[in-house]
Amino acid sequence: MKLKLASKPLMALFVAATVMIAGCQTVQPPSATGTTTPPAQGETKPADQGEKATEPATTEPAANQPATSGDAKETPRNETLYINGIQWGPPSNFNLLSGNPAFPINYGNSRELVYETLFMINQLDGKLEPLLGTKYEWTDDMTLHIELNKDAKWSDGKPFTSDDVVYTYQLGKKYDINWSNYWAYIADVTADGPNAVKIMLNKDNPNRLTVLDSIELIPMMPKHIWEEIEKKSNNDLATIRKEVNANPVATGPYKIYFYNDQKITIVRDDNYWGKSLFGKLPAPKYITHVIYKDNAAGDLAFKSGQVDVSQQFIPQVWNMWKNGAPIKTYLKDAPYYVPGSMPSIFFNFSKKGLDNPDVRRAIAMSIDYKKISDLAMSGYSAAMQPSLTLNTDAESKYVDQAAIKSLQWTTDVKAANELLDSIGAKKGKDGIRVLNGTRLGPFEVECPYGWSDWNAALEIVAQSAKAIGIEIRTKFPEAPVWTNDLQTGKFDIIMNTPAGGVNPSQPWSRAHDIMYSKEVAPLGEMAFWNWGRYKNDKADQIIDKIPSVTDQAELKTLYTDLTKIWLTDIPSIPLMYRPWVFHTVNESVWKGFPVDGDGSNIPPQIAMDGAGIRALYQIHN
Fold first, then answer.
1. What is the rounded distance in angstroms from the CA atom of residue 290 to the CA atom of residue 299?
2. SS3 of 210-243
3. Is the CB of residue 185 less than 8 Å from the CB of residue 207?
4. Rounded to whole angstroms, how far apart are CA atoms 331 and 322?
5. What is the pLDDT of residue 62?
6. Which stretches are tagged as biased composition: Basic and acidic residues (predicted)?
7. Which end of the chain is flanked by fewer CB atoms within 10 Å, N or C?
8. What mean pLDDT do residues 48-68 have?
9. Average pLDDT value for residue range 427-447
10. Selection from 410, 409, 407, 385 nearest residue 395 by Cα
């Protein structure tokens, strides 16, 4: 299902709003990094979203689009890396401006395979690694200077220059596309000679973090190609979006080789400029994404060795290697996958009973997080340590862990009952508590129907609340209804992922989406962050300040103070740590995939995004 999200002239989360798996998507707010655009049916979503139990939606090929392109013959197995879980349904186009490009052009992943970004995010440490850009620095409070790789070339042999960077950014100013909302924070992007650019912040709305997001999120486009497409289309975006672009001119190591309704194959460009950067060409000559009808079919192909890298949710993945199959996850033991988001429940602050922080804390203490991990997530979520940050090296460094420890909750039903007793919430004859004349339930907690792991998690939340005398009932509407309920505030408790994704603006963007109250529409109108309409002036001040702070010690103090406010007020409760990608590999054909502790510092995103692309230079037969 494709969700239509209302636009907002502020901010939008670029990554998560443009990808989906099994037909589902989490509604992301206009957050820190780009325009909210509904994903195409048939695209994957990152692993932070609820997995849908039914068969994935598909996308019909565009009208008058050729059914196939390239050579249909099979490629040699020992030269071909097979992947799954990114593309669901036939490809419709390979046009970055279409809003629904197929693998490997889709915005939220695989950007380094054909098109490339200036820098690559490393999920493990949060750092930006060089690609089309060699280095960046803030030359003053308002100017980011970026130096470009002089070796970089387009696949047609023309040099990649600063004009291409300026052109790509300006497309977002000229048209309403995925990176348009960066211009809320940018005053101008200009060339500084042929191999450098300057990005100037908007003095009325400066935000360094979002600009750093842009340099690792926006795929660079060739000016000499797309200017002609614009001219042919009379600068009409609707016409431009009809361009299939079956043979993209790009800077990446691969080109489109063949595609039809069943698979997409890309072939290595042996003239790839990046040989000078990486020291060699990628090992696989071909990468093929087979389009399976559902997760079960993809899992079967993966287990049998027909697929090398699976980005699908695999229940109880340890069963894959029980009989000695050469199958691995990035982490050897549970939770097996690196966390990338925190799907959470949000409280409507206008609801009597739920407006009390002690009631919200008691609910948080009642939840059986281990049961959620074991039953809903197949054990893929580590023990819950409530914070605004993920429990990763890239994020946990921002908060003084000792300073927040006394405020963090754990599953403790006895203590939750004692807390409710202490505030005078007495149980009635039916076992449900009453506080100041307000019965604590029934409250509805909702997420979309068919998002199986989220549905299971909310059932556990409802069961857990019974043990403390609070009545919570699950509600699983169709996704468009849930979207409307979320944005208009028509809910008691609702589940969503705040700013899912791994990018330079984290954990600020997550805190913004949970807590920031400025410019949030009132109940009944569309809000794209802070869905419960929480308000804390001190939190707003800290969130406003963080993007301009560069001193690491000061940042740690600010994030620690903000986390203390969140732990005290509890506007949301994270239910799980969820991987951004499900990275499982079968080494029957290809070996040498990165794993935790191998010293490579390569994140588990091979054939996906960012610095994970480096794995293509490490694997071998």
1. 12
2. HHHHHHHHCCCCCHHHHHHHHHHCCCCHHHHCCC
3. yes
4. 16
5. 36
6. 45-54
7. C
8. 40
9. 97
10. 385
For residue 462, is pLDDT > 50? yes
Task: Look up the pTM and report it.
Answer: 0.87
Structure token digits, residue 537: 């002036």
Place of tokens 């990628």: 282
Distance CA 58, CA 231 (A): 32
Q: Which of 497, 494, 496 is nearest to 472 (CA)?
A: 494
Distance CA 293, CA 289 (A): 13
Closest by CA to 59, choosing from 81, 86, 87, 85, is 87
User: By the 8 A CB rule, do 216 and 120 touch?
Assistant: yes
Burial of 15 by CB count in 10 Å (0-12 exposed, 13-18 middle, 19+ buried)?
buried
Distance CA 118, CA 135 (A): 9
Q: Which residues are bridge partners to 289 per DSSP?
A: 83, 264
Tokens of 365: 């203490």
Q: Which residue has the tokens 């287990």?
A: 303
The dihedral region occupied by 259, where left means phi > 0, alpha psi between -120 and 50, and beta the remainder, is beta
User: Which residue reads 């097996």 in tokens?
Assistant: 336
Kind and range of the H or E element at 137? strand 133-140
* Structure letter (DSSP) for residue 477: -
Residues 86-131: tens digit of each pLDDT: 998 899 999 999 988 999 998 766 779 999 999 999 999 999 999 9
Assigned token pair, 227: 């200017």
Is residue 413 within a helix (H) or strand (E), and if so which, with residue range?
Answer: helix 413-422
Identify the pLDDT of residue 214: 96
Q: How far apart are CA 65 and CA 533, in angstroms?
A: 46
Q: What is the DSSP track for 368-380?
A: -HHHIIIIISTT-
The CA distance from 166 to 154, in Å, is: 16
Contact 588, 305 (CB under 8 A): yes
Q: In whole angstroms, what is the distance from residue 533 CA to residue 520 CA?
A: 7
HSE value, Cβ hemisphere, 13 Å, CA-based, for 348: 21
Neighbours of 270 (CB within 10 A): 9
User: Is 90 exceeded by the pLDDT of residue 38?
Assistant: no
Both tokens assigned to 39: 């994903």
Overall size of the chain counted in residues: 621
Find, among 481, 423, 425, 422, the residue nearest to 449 by Cα: 481
Provide φ and ψ at 258, rounded to 5°: -160, 145
- Residue scoring higher pLDDT (262 or 37): 262
Q: Report d(CA 316, CA 296) in Å as an integer.
A: 13
